[in-house]
Amino acid sequence: MARLPRLSVAGYPHHVIQRGNDRQAIFADASDLTRYLDALRTVAAEHELSVHAYVLMPNHVHLLLTPTDARAIGAAMQAIGRRYVRWFNDRHSRTGALFEGRYRSTVVEADRYLMACMRYIELNPVRTLLVAAPEHYEWSSYRHHTGLATDDLISDHALYWQLGNTPFARQAEYRSLFEHHATAGEIDLIRQSTHGGWALGTHNFALRLGRASPRRSERRLPGRPKAAGHSAPNK
Questions:
Q1: pTM of the prediction?
Q2: φ and ψ of 152, to 5 deg
Q3: Euclidean distance between CA atoms 200 and 198, whole angstroms
Q4: Rounded average pLDDT over 191-214
Q5: For residues 12 and 108, is the Cβ–Cβ distance under 8 A?
């Protein structure tokens, strides 16, 4: 069965995962990590992408992006592949693919899931036991959002600005979101939506996306649809 095209809609945040081919490492040291961020910064500007959150893990990357054009994320990920992979291969005397051929993504219902998605992204190093707390990991947007660093790659989403009237208030409120980790159900929902390419949001949100994109935004439930004109018996 042919794969569905990716669901991509202008003006909505998208959670994107880019993995190493066969889960191989895509970063060997700080120079590689810095180079990837430089490539992302350049490509985001070229394709008019807002970067709201990110984390660079040893063998994969999580990004939270809002495109101004539905085609922008696909073009940007290809551009990163050209810029970073060529440099990585030359630097490490290797050839061949570095990333999986197909990145994963989902469109996020911001009012309901944006903050949950940001927390999911920035807690990756904690869940995988790389660090004990997110502020200890240099290669994510957490330190920017909590006032520990300034990252010019980040374009803060409007919902982040609504956390408080001052930078201190926003940062404090954002830190409070991390006092309790996400539930297993929330983590599973984010993972399933992203890996399956389905909308991360309510049914009504998926319906709205359906009017903006020709691509189906929800997973079909198992079983045949009911035939038209036949109603279910009363119970």
A1: 0.88
A2: -75, -5
A3: 6
A4: 85
A5: yes
